[in-house]
Structure prediction request, 196 residues.
Amino acid sequence: MESDVVKKTVTTTSPKETRALGYALASSLRGGDVVLLSGTLGAGKTCLVSGLAEGMRVQSPVSSPTFTLLHTHEPQDKDGLFLHHMDVYRLQDADAFLHLGFYDLITENAVLFIEWGCQVREVLPDDVVEIRLEQVSDDVEEDNCRHVTLLAPSSKANRFLKAFDVWEACRCIAGDIDLSCSSCNVETGDSSKETP
Prediction:
Protein backbone atom coordinates (compact mmCIF):
# COMPACT_ATOMS: atom_id res chain seq x y z
CA MET A 1 0.00 0.00 0.00
CA GLU A 2 1.20 3.56 -0.67
CA SER A 3 2.95 5.18 2.28
CA ASP A 4 0.34 7.96 2.59
CA VAL A 5 -2.79 6.17 3.81
CA VAL A 6 -6.11 7.70 4.88
CA LYS A 7 -8.05 5.87 7.59
CA LYS A 8 -11.72 6.05 8.55
CA THR A 9 -13.76 3.78 10.83
CA VAL A 10 -17.56 3.48 11.05
CA THR A 11 -19.74 1.09 13.03
CA THR A 12 -22.54 -0.94 11.50
CA THR A 13 -25.17 -2.36 13.84
CA SER A 14 -26.74 -5.07 11.64
CA PRO A 15 -26.06 -7.15 8.54
CA LYS A 16 -28.50 -4.82 6.74
CA GLU A 17 -26.30 -1.82 7.57
CA THR A 18 -23.16 -3.69 6.51
CA ARG A 19 -24.79 -4.50 3.15
CA ALA A 20 -25.90 -0.86 2.82
CA LEU A 21 -22.33 0.30 3.36
CA GLY A 22 -21.25 -2.04 0.56
CA TYR A 23 -24.02 -0.61 -1.62
CA ALA A 24 -22.74 2.92 -0.98
CA LEU A 25 -19.17 1.86 -1.76
CA ALA A 26 -20.20 0.77 -5.26
CA SER A 27 -20.29 4.43 -6.31
CA SER A 28 -16.62 4.86 -5.43
CA LEU A 29 -15.27 2.06 -7.60
CA ARG A 30 -13.28 2.45 -10.81
CA GLY A 31 -11.99 -0.19 -13.20
CA GLY A 32 -8.73 -1.69 -11.99
CA ASP A 33 -9.46 -1.14 -8.29
CA VAL A 34 -8.26 -3.87 -5.95
CA VAL A 35 -9.83 -4.01 -2.49
CA LEU A 36 -8.59 -6.32 0.25
CA LEU A 37 -11.12 -7.46 2.84
CA SER A 38 -9.83 -8.60 6.20
CA GLY A 39 -11.56 -9.85 9.31
CA THR A 40 -12.18 -13.06 11.20
CA LEU A 41 -14.63 -15.73 10.03
CA GLY A 42 -18.15 -14.31 10.25
CA ALA A 43 -16.98 -10.70 10.40
CA GLY A 44 -19.20 -9.72 7.44
CA LYS A 45 -16.83 -9.70 4.47
CA THR A 46 -19.23 -11.52 2.13
CA CYS A 47 -22.15 -9.48 3.51
CA LEU A 48 -20.35 -6.26 2.52
CA VAL A 49 -19.63 -7.62 -0.97
CA SER A 50 -23.30 -8.64 -1.31
CA GLY A 51 -24.38 -5.00 -0.88
CA LEU A 52 -21.58 -3.86 -3.16
CA ALA A 53 -22.76 -6.24 -5.91
CA GLU A 54 -26.28 -4.84 -5.59
CA GLY A 55 -24.94 -1.30 -5.93
CA MET A 56 -22.83 -2.30 -8.94
CA ARG A 57 -25.88 -3.93 -10.56
CA VAL A 58 -24.23 -7.23 -11.38
CA GLN A 59 -26.21 -10.16 -12.76
CA SER A 60 -25.77 -12.93 -10.21
CA PRO A 61 -26.18 -12.98 -6.42
CA VAL A 62 -23.09 -13.07 -4.21
CA SER A 63 -22.06 -16.08 -2.18
CA SER A 64 -18.82 -16.91 -0.45
CA PRO A 65 -16.11 -18.12 -2.86
CA THR A 66 -14.32 -20.04 -0.08
CA PHE A 67 -14.19 -23.37 -1.93
CA THR A 68 -14.10 -22.16 -5.54
CA LEU A 69 -11.63 -19.32 -4.78
CA LEU A 70 -13.24 -17.01 -7.34
CA HIS A 71 -16.71 -15.86 -8.38
CA THR A 72 -17.01 -13.49 -11.33
CA HIS A 73 -20.18 -11.41 -11.62
CA GLU A 74 -21.03 -9.79 -14.96
CA PRO A 75 -22.58 -6.31 -15.07
CA GLN A 76 -26.22 -5.89 -16.06
CA ASP A 77 -25.35 -2.70 -17.96
CA LYS A 78 -23.08 -2.84 -21.00
CA ASP A 79 -20.88 -0.07 -19.57
CA GLY A 80 -20.79 -1.59 -16.07
CA LEU A 81 -17.83 -3.18 -14.32
CA PHE A 82 -17.25 -6.87 -13.72
CA LEU A 83 -16.95 -7.84 -10.06
CA HIS A 84 -14.32 -10.46 -9.27
CA HIS A 85 -14.87 -11.75 -5.73
CA MET A 86 -12.07 -13.93 -4.36
CA ASP A 87 -11.35 -15.78 -1.15
CA VAL A 88 -7.64 -16.66 -0.91
CA TYR A 89 -7.77 -18.19 2.56
CA ARG A 90 -6.95 -21.64 1.14
CA LEU A 91 -4.03 -20.53 -1.05
CA GLN A 92 -0.63 -21.66 0.20
CA ASP A 93 1.11 -18.37 -0.57
CA ALA A 94 1.25 -15.35 -2.89
CA ASP A 95 3.05 -17.41 -5.56
CA ALA A 96 -0.06 -19.60 -5.89
CA PHE A 97 -2.07 -16.42 -6.60
CA LEU A 98 0.28 -15.61 -9.48
CA HIS A 99 0.55 -19.22 -10.70
CA LEU A 100 -3.25 -19.52 -10.97
CA GLY A 101 -3.36 -16.37 -13.12
CA PHE A 102 -5.41 -14.31 -10.68
CA TYR A 103 -3.22 -11.23 -11.22
CA ASP A 104 -4.67 -11.10 -14.74
CA LEU A 105 -8.07 -10.24 -13.22
CA ILE A 106 -6.84 -6.69 -12.53
CA THR A 107 -8.23 -4.95 -15.61
CA GLU A 108 -9.85 -1.64 -16.52
CA ASN A 109 -13.29 -3.21 -16.93
CA ALA A 110 -13.39 -4.93 -13.53
CA VAL A 111 -12.89 -4.50 -9.80
CA LEU A 112 -11.30 -7.18 -7.65
CA PHE A 113 -12.37 -7.81 -4.04
CA ILE A 114 -10.16 -10.27 -2.18
CA GLU A 115 -11.22 -11.80 1.14
CA TRP A 116 -8.17 -12.61 3.29
CA GLY A 117 -6.28 -10.44 0.79
CA CYS A 118 -3.39 -9.65 3.15
CA GLN A 119 -2.08 -13.15 2.34
CA VAL A 120 -1.31 -12.06 -1.24
CA ARG A 121 -0.61 -8.37 -0.59
CA GLU A 122 3.04 -8.60 -1.63
CA VAL A 123 2.17 -9.36 -5.28
CA LEU A 124 -0.55 -6.71 -5.67
CA PRO A 125 -0.27 -3.09 -6.90
CA ASP A 126 0.83 -0.44 -4.38
CA ASP A 127 -2.49 1.43 -4.52
CA VAL A 128 -4.75 -1.28 -3.09
CA VAL A 129 -7.54 -0.30 -0.70
CA GLU A 130 -8.09 -2.31 2.46
CA ILE A 131 -11.34 -2.67 4.38
CA ARG A 132 -11.16 -4.31 7.80
CA LEU A 133 -14.25 -5.69 9.52
CA GLU A 134 -14.21 -6.66 13.18
CA GLN A 135 -16.83 -7.65 15.68
CA VAL A 136 -17.33 -4.97 18.32
CA SER A 137 -18.03 -7.41 21.13
CA ASP A 138 -18.40 -11.08 22.01
CA ASP A 139 -21.65 -10.13 23.76
CA VAL A 140 -24.63 -11.83 22.07
CA GLU A 141 -26.71 -8.62 22.16
CA GLU A 142 -24.00 -6.72 20.28
CA ASP A 143 -23.14 -9.63 18.01
CA ASN A 144 -24.26 -7.78 14.84
CA CYS A 145 -22.15 -4.67 15.49
CA ARG A 146 -19.04 -4.30 13.33
CA HIS A 147 -16.25 -1.76 13.19
CA VAL A 148 -15.54 -1.23 9.48
CA THR A 149 -12.22 0.49 8.82
CA LEU A 150 -11.19 1.93 5.48
CA LEU A 151 -7.46 2.18 4.73
CA ALA A 152 -7.11 3.94 1.39
CA PRO A 153 -4.06 5.35 -0.37
CA SER A 154 -4.28 9.12 -0.75
CA SER A 155 -4.67 8.74 -4.53
CA LYS A 156 -8.02 6.97 -4.00
CA ALA A 157 -9.10 8.16 -0.56
CA ASN A 158 -11.48 10.97 -1.57
CA ARG A 159 -13.88 8.82 -3.53
CA PHE A 160 -13.99 6.05 -0.91
CA LEU A 161 -14.41 8.57 1.93
CA LYS A 162 -17.36 10.15 0.08
CA ALA A 163 -19.10 6.78 -0.06
CA PHE A 164 -18.52 6.25 3.67
CA ASP A 165 -19.88 9.74 4.33
CA VAL A 166 -23.01 9.10 2.25
CA TRP A 167 -23.68 5.89 4.17
CA GLU A 168 -23.09 7.58 7.53
CA ALA A 169 -25.38 10.49 6.68
CA CYS A 170 -28.25 8.40 5.36
CA ARG A 171 -28.04 5.03 7.10
CA CYS A 172 -30.37 3.82 4.34
CA ILE A 173 -31.04 0.13 3.88
CA ALA A 174 -29.42 -1.71 0.99
CA GLY A 175 -31.37 -1.27 -2.22
CA ASP A 176 -33.09 1.90 -1.01
CA ILE A 177 -30.02 4.10 -0.63
CA ASP A 178 -30.08 7.24 -2.75
CA LEU A 179 -26.49 8.21 -3.46
CA SER A 180 -27.53 11.72 -4.51
CA CYS A 181 -29.80 12.20 -1.47
CA SER A 182 -30.06 15.95 -0.79
CA SER A 183 -30.21 15.40 2.98
CA CYS A 184 -26.74 13.81 2.81
CA ASN A 185 -25.26 16.97 1.33
CA VAL A 186 -22.62 14.74 -0.26
CA GLU A 187 -22.27 14.27 -3.98
CA THR A 188 -20.49 11.14 -5.13
CA GLY A 189 -20.15 12.33 -8.70
CA ASP A 190 -20.03 10.44 -11.95
CA SER A 191 -18.81 6.92 -11.21
CA SER A 192 -17.14 6.69 -14.60
CA LYS A 193 -14.62 9.41 -13.79
CA GLU A 194 -11.70 9.47 -11.38
CA THR A 195 -12.00 11.77 -8.39
CA PRO A 196 -8.70 13.50 -7.64
About this structure: Residues 179-196 have pLDDT under 50 and may be disordered. The longest strand covers residues 5-12.
